[in-house]
């Protein structure tokens, strides 16, 4: 189990204090689960394709104890609490916590009521998997309290089912897998068909490189019609090609329907870009993956049509200021972009991104440096 970093410990102190203030006792356990950046491989997960995320050092922390009723408390804003006799019909932010309890039961892992206090600093709405971080921290806390040892890959499937069937967001397996399975100092190359994975070294500092995450402050929502429509397009394209998933489509496959053909082209080429990125990282390091990142953004912008003005502005400005490569990351329709840069160029790239947003009268982005952090772990 990884050693918690100081930031995770600080967040846990807040969660424990919130639990004690709300319920009058200390929690029995506390688990932290991180958000993630997807280096490359977007919308390939629900097509049984390849992805390559790494965990961010931003965490959702769940402090929890057994209880007689379900009680969910969050520190968001001024704090809010949801109390429920059963798991039926829990809504809003608490649905992500109730959902994993329901999904655990559906998977044969019996759990009972708990009291939870949630504290998270994973940016909400930024496409960095704040929901998956909540789900994974809550799932591991519930399993801990009720004595279940669950393989992390299975836990990812359970958390995904919670988001798909309980919350109603048709996401793939990427986010939960990243939160549970990523390792410090590595990007995780994963096959979403069987969850086979390899931790590929990703220590940019040693190469004099930096990865900037640009939260555009354009709201990012998975559970909307656009995400679902892209998934439906892929299912239709696979049906027309006579394959189970677009992962199985030949490299030269084409369809008469222009929209479906563009969706198909993105998935086929994005899977190829993931494989190429892994090869470059293994053989020569991160400096050589910039063009692959940029090509991924172009594909998402033009073929998958999931970008927006805020994301395009951030990517274009970063590239114009000398970034080696840049792309939107996450489900799209808002959220964040990433830019791979030479560390010495950080100030120049940040200034260019901020200036471009101001000129276009777009929301002011929040920019921070990313590093590959550890996956979910018990704090206390």
UniProtKB/TrEMBL annotation:
SUPFAM superfamilies given in the database record: GHMP Kinase, C-terminal domain, Ribosomal protein S5 domain 2-like
Domain Galactokinase N-terminal per the UniProt entry, residue ranges: 17-66
Keyword Ribonucleoprotein: no
Known EC number: 2.7.1.6
Domain GHMP kinase N-terminal: residue ranges: 96-181
GO terms of biological process kind: galactose metabolic process
GO molecular function: ATP binding; galactokinase activity; metal ion binding
Alphabetical list of InterPro entries matching this protein: Galactokinase (IPR000705), Galactokinase_CS (IPR019741), GalKase_N (IPR019539), GHMP_kinase_C_dom (IPR013750), GHMP_kinase_C_sf (IPR036554), GHMP_kinase_N_dom (IPR006204), GHMP_knse_ATP-bd_CS (IPR006203), Mevalonate/galactokinase (IPR006206)
Keywords from the UniProt entry: ATP-binding, Carbohydrate metabolism, Cytoplasm, Galactose metabolism, Kinase, Magnesium, Metal-binding, Nucleotide-binding, Transferase
GO CC terms: cytosol
Domain GHMP kinase C-terminal: 281-355
Similarity comment: Belongs to the GHMP kinase family. GalK subfamily.
Database matches in NCBIfam families: gal_kin
Protein name: Galactokinase
Organism of origin: Glycomyces buryatensis
Gene behind this protein: galK
